[in-house]
Amino acid sequence: MRDLLATAQAGQESERELQLFGPPREVMQVRAVPLRDADEVIGAAAFVHDITEIRRVEHVRRDFVANVSHELKTPIGAIELLAETVADCDDIDVMRQLSQQLAHEADRLAQIVDDLLDLSMIEAQETPTRERVSVRVLIDDAVERVRALALARGIPVRVAPVAADLGLSCDATQLVAALTNLLDNAVKYSEPGAAVEVSAHRAEDRGVIEVRDHGIGIPSSDLERIFERFYRVDKARSRATGGTGLGLAIVRHIAQAHGGDVRVESREGEGSTFSLELPDADRRAPEQRVAEAS
Predict the structure, then answer these.
(1) Domain 64-124 maps to which CATH number in 2.60.120.10, 1.10.287.130, 3.40.640.10, 2.40.10.10?
(2) Could you write out the three-class secondary structure of the chain?
(3) Which one of 98, 107, 166, 243 is least enclosed by Cβ atoms within 10 Å?
(4) Which residue intervals of the chain bear CATH 1.10.287.130?
(5) Does the pTM of the predicted model rise above 0.70?
């Protein structure tokens, strides 16, 4: 700072970014200018602009672009290699097998793009469209979406009785998507025969939907990061099961956009319980109901 002011007192403007080591760690943009009286420099002034959030967003954007590039590069590289192999192959049976692998990689690529588009649209929608929706209807719709996968993997999905009057104030399409992601994860990370259990209850002014599995569980060291974009606990297994690393990020964004949140409890080797918490449609404050209706 002193050298900036000294430069300004010498008659020249100067500018620099300074990092302040906290906590919290902050970034300031400092601009020093000379103060003049006619042609004479009589002093200097410094203007400080807090650009911490700007630099944080830039860092997040760079990481996101790098992660997207990496995730897209893997299936694209596999498709290129398989296509070259097919072109040089004369064995019909081998070509059929390679074609199936090509289709699998293409599906994986499409899933990544679909999840990116879903996340982009959800983030762009500042306020979700809300209506009162039965929790049982939301759960039934989500379970139906994963039924084929659950049957193929031999995973029974059990839904506990839900109170008929339990409803959420939400965008039904988004909530079904969030529940589907939680169920999809539970099924993919469970061993054949291990049930996935879904239940719902009230907790003060909130409705809580829980998805519990008896799968491999999540290490405690990973619990803080599993809702980050592209973060995977078991990268090899995630890719093998078709995971994109975006599902839980989508769930958290949907929950928080509705004024709620998603939480997880897990033990390695025992399974995980994800709890989706949202405002109870019938127990919100009157002013909230008026605001949503207007």
Answers:
(1) 1.10.287.130
(2) CHHHHHHHHCCCCEEEEEEECCCCCEEEEEEEEEEEECCEEEEEEEEEEECHHHHHHHHHHHHHHHHHHHHHHHHHHHHHHHHHHHHCCCCHHHHHHHHHHHHHHHHHHHHHHHHHHHHHHHHHCCCCCCEEEEHHHHHHHHHHHHHHHHHHHCCCEEECCCCCCCEEEECHHHHHHHHHHHHHHHHHCCCCCCCEEEEEEEECCEEEEEEECCCCCCCHHHCCCCCCCCCCCCHHHHHHCCCCCCHHHHHHHHHHHCCCEEEEEEECCCEEEEEEEEEECCCCCHHHHHHHHC
(3) 107
(4) 64-124
(5) no
Q: Where does CATH 3.30.565.10 sit in the chain?
A: 131-286
CATH 3.30.565.10 fits 131-286, yes or no: yes
